[in-house]
Design a protein that fits this description.
alpha/beta; Rossmann fold; two-stranded parallel ribbon; 8 helices; 33% helix
Length: 297
């Protein structure tokens, strides 16, 4: 039998992954507050608020071979981040540890917000995590909760996730808004389908008895400036920039993510750069202007 998978926080990313696993014969349970959203996906729904797991027994969560923690905070506030990431993960680990058959691996979906680099540095898994924001600090504390836990765990740090339905940047460009050329602010991104592909890849690698690292930094293979990405999108959408966007200083980071570790482990990106990834999003979302049937003389 194929291994069972428990997805904690089964939103867009978790549901997409769950559908792929179910299609291959895996038994998948998805945990979210409003589980009716999983109807018709093939994922076994479990309605649960993680705050209810304080002092919970082993039966609060079903046993599974693999557990993926991919919860999202419901608002950008310190209390929400603490509840969703650090405290929520600790509650889940406390329940899993009580299982007669604990999971073979727990995968925690983290973020490159744990890094605080400001000067365009190339970063990898060994780079310092010195984020000054509460979001990066709490995410890092959540990571450490897993890495220090007796259960086998792996942290997967994703850069900015985009994909179908995650099209804020496209809509900004469609309105004629494009980032400034200077200062050069590097951004890093990963298509949602590569996020699910990587999580699936790590499960399959572990199932084959191959080593997986405790930490992976996962971003596509081409860091690019925000202006470069938005200017490319403007050309695809055939719009002219009418407003220059400045990056707020309080939220500014400037780094280039190195994905060597996940690539050398054998993963092959479905969308290795922003052009390929956004082409898919533009096509699926119906953003591209219609081609004229007129022939140029």
């Amino acid at each position: 039998m194929k291994p069972s998978v428990l997805i904690i926080g089964c939103g867009d990313l978790g549901t997409t992954l769950g559908r792929e696993l179910v299609a291959r014969g895996h038994s998948v349970t998805g945990v979210r507050r409003h589980a009716d959203a999983l109807a018709g996906t093939g994922i076994e729904p479990l309605a649960l608020d993680l705050n209810a797991l304080d002092h919970a027994g082993a039966d609060a969560l079903p046993e599974a071979d693999y557990v993926i923690y991919t919860v999202s905070a419901d608002r950008f506030e310190e209390s929400a981040y603490q509840s969703a990431y650090r405290d929520g993960l600790q509650r889940v680990l406390a329940v899993l540890q009580q299982h007669a058959n604990p999971p073979r691996q727990v995968l925690f979906v983290s973020s490159t917000s744990v890094y605080g680099q400001q000067d365009g540095e190339v970063i990898n898994e060994q780079s310092p995590t010195s984020a000054s924001s509460f979001s990066g600090r709490l995410m890092r504390e959540a990571e450490q909760s897993l890495l220090d836990h007796p259960l086998p765990g792996t942290v997967v740090r994703f850069s900015g996730i985009y994909g179908p339905g995650r099209d804020r940047l496209i809509r900004q460009v469609a309105e004629g808004r494009v980032a400034a050329v200077t200062p050069e602010i590097y951004t890093n991104r990963i298509h949602r389908d590569d996020c699910t592909g990587i999580l699936d890849f790590l499960i399959q690698r572990r199932e084959r008895g191959e080593h997986i690292e405790p930490l992976y930094l996962c971003s596509d293979s081409e860091p690019a400036t925000k202006h470069e990405v938005m200017a490319w999108l403007a050309r695809q959408l055939r719009v002219e920039a009418t407003e220059t966007l400045q990056t707020p200083l309080r939220r500014r980071t400037n780094k280039r993510c190195d994905n060597t570790r996940i690539v050398e482990s054998g993963y092959r990106f479905r969308y290795p750069d922003f052009r390929e990834g956004y082409t898919q999003v533009l096509q699926v979302g119906g953003f591209l202007p219609e081609q004229s049937d007129e022939q140029t003389p």
